[in-house]
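Known limitations

Structure tokens in this collection are predictions and should be treated as such. Users comparing against experimental data should check residue numbering before alignment. To illustrate the layout, the record for histidine kinase is reproduced below. The input appears on top and the generated tokens appear beneath it.
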Amino acid sequence: MNTPLKKRLLWLLGITLFALLLAWIWHGSWQRQATEQELRAQQQLLVYRAALESEIARFENIPRALRSHPVLLRALASPRNAQALHQANLLLAQLAADTGVEALYMMDGEGTTLAASNWDQPHSFIGQNYRFRPYFTDALEGSFGEFYGVGATTGIPGYFFGLRLGREAGVTGVLATKITLLELERSWQPAQDLVMVVDPDQVIALASRAELKFQTLLPLSPQARARLERTRQYHPMSLTPLALGRQGEQLSWQGHQYRVSELPLPRLRWRLQLWWPSRPLYDTASLVTAVAGVSIIALVLLLLYWRQRRRYVQAQLRAKGELERKVMARTAALAASNRQLERQVQERFQAEARLRSMQHELIQVNRLAALGQMAASVAHEINQPLTALRNQSVNTLLLAQRGHADQVEQSLQTMGRLVDRIARLTSQLKLFAATRRKTRGRARLDEALDNVLSWLGPRVEEQGVRLHRPAPGVVLPMELHALEQVLANLIGNGLDALADTADAAITLDADDRRLHLWDNGPGIAPELLDKVTEPFFSTKQAGQGLGLGLAIVRDLVEASDGRLAIAARPEGGACFTLSWREHEQPRD
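Generated tokens:
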């Protein structure tokens, strides 16, 4: 084996060993940190579990202490005795205030509430039937019922206890206690890690982050969803799965990587989980590996330097004169290389200056082209209402001469709408350039559509386009003038697209939270769907549009807390969908 090949193999072997050493250091550092972090997480989980169990345990004996109370037994035995029920209500209210529970209530054997601590409150349990709750059926069968869920009457989540009242052969009922764990959840919020309690159906029942609560770690099976619907445990929550990414034991959520530590909870077969960020482990392991690698490289370089220095001294003693000549030759070569490098740098500076000048000229040309297109488009759009305004003014003069006062008033109103349309056309650029403001409000779709058709009606009739209107009475969560602007742009674009289409039609369909508008024109190419809402982007020929219509529609819809979606229809044409979310969720 020749010497150069041997040296290359030795270098390759050294680099491989160095890489393996760094990988071993990185893995050892990461493993050590992961073990330490897991121990800390388990200690934290023990603290959280003790606090949760303590919070629940200090209330679970309340039903046992009251199961033989004569006031409650008398009310249970005489459900039609108003005095007995009133005394039971007062007793439960006083005990709830003294113990700090959310509610105390007593049900008969059919699950109907006879007495409750909140008997005089708007969301009283009196008369409500909770036979469908598992804690009721468990208590009625003789066991101590426990259950966690969203309140069927108040909509407030809570932990429920149930215990049977009465004797075996006598009248039976159930005494229930509801406590809230909201304060405990709030105590978890300052923690940087994510703390949550997961039930056997993978539903997050308690969480330190509000957006995690009542989500699922895995999609619910049909059997589990049917069981939860039957007991109304989390009604009306949607129980949608979290958007989680999984890679081995690591989870990713909202752009962050987590590892999960878990501790079982005996109650309700819950699991207490702690999600802690894993990114610091990788960063620390990488830092330790980098420091170790730099230290190893520095040591190797020091050894190489010492060896080279030794050789250099020996060579200097043997051939000082030859070395001096080589140094002079090398200096001359470096000087020549330096001069060549300076010339190359100067040439590059000159090329960059020319490139910046050409870019500046190109920007100016694009600006002038955009201004020319904008001016031509505005002139084209304004020409039609100006012509209509001129014709309307002549008709108004003739009607006035003939004494038709009613028709004169209608004509003047039409002229006013044409002037408003011109103002809207010229204000599109101002509307697009202005700072976005909120356009949330309430507007009748019929009124807005009538106003828009008063401007675009002649075009619709001239092109022979069939316009299918939605059912009357729809009210959308948007200001009237903003809704008119949206409809004018969408219908105007539809008319432009249907210019050469036979049997052309534009269809609108809407409810109180959604508006669909589609046509049977040529549609929009799939590769352009993400670009058509960009400012000054247009598929029309120069002078036929500013390219601002859909950009304005998008901004107006988003300013009303809505969303604009554009899709190509399989049967041809384009479909525009405007949707809004509800701001408030109704209580059950």
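For this record: Residues 320-402 form the longest helix (83 residues). Residues 363-371, 431-436, 584-588 have pLDDT under 50 and may be disordered. Please report discrepancies through the issue tracker.
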